[in-house]
Predict the 3D structure of the following.
Amino acid sequence: GNSVTQMEGPVTLSEEAFLTINCTYTATGYPSLFWYVQYPGEGLQLLLKATKADDKGSNKGFEATYRKETTSFHLEKGSVQVSDSAVYFCALSPSGYSTLTFGKGTMLLVSP
Amino acid sequence: SQTIHQWPATLVQPVGSPLSLECTVEGTSNPNLYWYRQAAGRGLQLLFYSVGIGQISSEVPQNLSASRPQDRQFILSSKKLLLSDSGFYLCAWSVPRRQEDEKLFFGSGTQLSVL
């Protein structure tokens, strides 16, 4: 079956530090990969996605590259801000369906 | 613009009591609708999805049920809650077109505590 494994948190960083949140997946075929973000008190929002190998999704300074050879989709940002503090979820979807499989989520805490 | 409403935001219920969580979507027609749950220490798990009125697919066997009495209304229910039903419940919708299939829009969630 499909599964997503992401690093456990919380990840605690100072403002302007470099961020990496690891995500690896197990799936049959060629899934689409996603990062969702949940800010405090809000619902989940799509942050970025990639639909095929070597695609790079990017949004709000965050990036993630679909690596089929390592079955990974690590989230990175060069310089985090306090406002980036949130829970980040890695997810996958079999092509053409919205029935996502999510990781457990990683909490990011950024201090000034 | 489309919006999704989910309520209540928090709920504390005794074991054995019934449950009804409601979700409505505005600004779109015939959306695909979903209920997800995030239990403590676990990832988000898909519970139910619906592609139309009265059409419900269950992903995991459980103590819960879902209904879609109207096009933009999705209800999660239980006749008797268990302790293990505690968790964070999220409703979501998506546009039912292939190229848009993979983008979900989530509600703000309901934190359910069963005591």
Notes: The longest strand of chain A covers residues 86-93. The mean pLDDT of chain A is 90. Residues 3 and 26 of chain A are 5 Å apart (CA to CA). The radius of gyration of chain A is 13 Å.
